[in-house]
Amino acid sequence: MSSQIIPVEPFDYVVFGGSGDLAERKLLPALYHRQIEGQFSEPTRIIGASRSALSNEEYRKFADAALKEHLKKGEYDEPEVKKFLARLFYVPVDARSDAGWDQLKKILDEGKDRVRAFYLAVAPGIFGDISQKIHDHKLITKQTRIVVEKPIGRDLASALQLNDTIGKVFKEEQIFRIDHYLGKETVQNLMALRFANALYEPLWNANHIDHVQITVAESVGLEGRAGYYDTAGALRDMVQNHILQLLCLTAMEIPSSMDSEAVRDEKLKVLRALKPINASNVEQATVRGQYRAGASSGGPVKGYLDELEGGVSNTETFVAIKAEIGNWRWAGVPFYIRTGKRLAGRMSEIVITFKPIPHNIFDQAAGRTVANQLIIRLQPDEGVKQSLMIKDPGPGGMRLRNVSLDMSFASAFNVRNPDAYERLLMDVIRSNQTLFMRRDEVEAAWEWVDPILKGWEEAGQQVQGYTAGTWGPSQAIALIERDGRTWHDDI
Ligand code: BG6
């Protein structure tokens, strides 16, 4: 089954940090896929920009190597790659001086009427400088957008500052704050599931739902990012953005339409309704962990401290939180969230556990009834599972069994699962902000996260060690088990 591809208008994508890691691993392969699927209109160009002194030819070689390395088997198609490389250009620019900017303007002026997108795949410390240079060199047209990657700040104050800096030059509707989790297929499916079916909505509240779990588990460690990660930690790196976005989509009211403002207004209300966690309750509501040496991804791995230069750190590589939303829909329904590096596997999912049946009519021989669960799996094996109690087949007596209606998207539809960036990069060109974070959302997320960070400091909450390759510290298991519930740990 193939979906219909609607081509976007011709565009120029300028990627600052064009020879960096994100461009290499994600952006160039994603754009290549959009070309293959016929989404580009001509003329369309991709312009790498960074401080490295590369020529167009050298940049094309870099992109070719990136495609060879990061495309899956069978996806590298010689004629398509040739066509793709021909649309690549490169301009060496310096964010902090005027070097290179006239050349960039000259190239961009060749396509004045095209959609123009500036992608800032660079450290947030130079977002301000780049925006200002874009403005000073008169590169902003009516059709211009800017895309910024996380981290957007490391607390509320720095996020406000960053948003102000970009906001001086660009209007809010031109600013695309990317959270790649929103581009994941299953995340969009969560909206389809909730809002295109009549089945769940009547049950989607505190009367019928016992609790929600959101897990984003990774088996990888620092992947060479110790410098950044040790100043961030799991709460800033994963919860403030990705996990809170998943929580919002799960908990929000039904927007009046898929219009970007309508959707983001509802997400914002959820963020604002999150009950505060601060010094007074942070120790009961959160667990911080840090991995020790162990085994992961099939081999022995070092502990976090052994991967750091100084070997001393209280940064969390794991966090678990019992969050609550103070509104009518969710009163008394805990949202248990957890994320960590070097866990037992790569697994991200949202699990909705419904309340148990109010009265059991079956006798003991039928066995225990298990509460229904809806499992929305982001990765691996994207899909949705609904568990139900059925009668064990056969002529014996009435025995009950818990089974899953399993819809794995890969096997249900014979299509390639696109990378999250593919959808989002094209939404920028289409100027569709629905899957991007609005300024007030980012700030509201920090408003909830800041008191947790301060609470940890005030309470002197230390990280708890966990062995690499496990599900995190035992305290995280206790966090949910003291409420009589358990983590859903099926990989
Ligand atoms: C990034 C984090 O935003 O998301 C990384 O900075 C993390 O630390 C990554 O590994 C996870 O993304 P995905 O798509 O692999 O789940």
Automatic annotation (TrEMBL):
The record's active-site residues are 242
Q: Name one GO cellular component term.
A: cytosol
**Residues reported to bind NADP(+):** 51, 150
The EC code for this enzyme is: 1.1.1.49
Keyword list (alphabetical) reads:
Carbohydrate metabolism, Glucose metabolism, NADP, Oxidoreductase
Q: Name one GO molecular function term.
A: NADP binding
What does the record give as its pathway? Carbohydrate degradation; pentose phosphate pathway; D-ribulose 5-phosphate from D-glucose 6-phosphate (oxidative stage): step 1/3
Gene3D superfamilies hit by this protein: Dihydrodipicolinate Reductase, domain 2 (3.30.360.10), NAD(P)-binding Rossmann-like Domain (3.40.50.720)
| Known catalytic reactions | D-glucose 6-phosphate + NADP(+) = 6-phospho-D-glucono-1,5-lactone + NADPH + H(+)
UniProt domain Glucose-6-phosphate dehydrogenase C-terminal: residue ranges: 191-488
Where in this chain does the record put each Glucose-6-phosphate dehydrogenase NAD-binding domain? 14-189
Q: Which PROSITE patterns match?
A: G6P_DEHYDROGENASE
Task: Tell me the GO BP annotations in alphabetical order.
Answer: glucose metabolic process; pentose-phosphate shunt, oxidative branch
- Binding of substrate, residues: 180, 184, 218, 237, 341
Which family does the record assign?
Belongs to the glucose-6-phosphate dehydrogenase family.
What is this protein for, i.e. what is its function?
Answer: Catalyzes the oxidation of glucose 6-phosphate to 6-phosphogluconolactone.
Q: Which NCBIfam families match?
A: zwf
Quote the protein name from its UniProt record.
Glucose-6-phosphate 1-dehydrogenase
The encoding gene: zwf
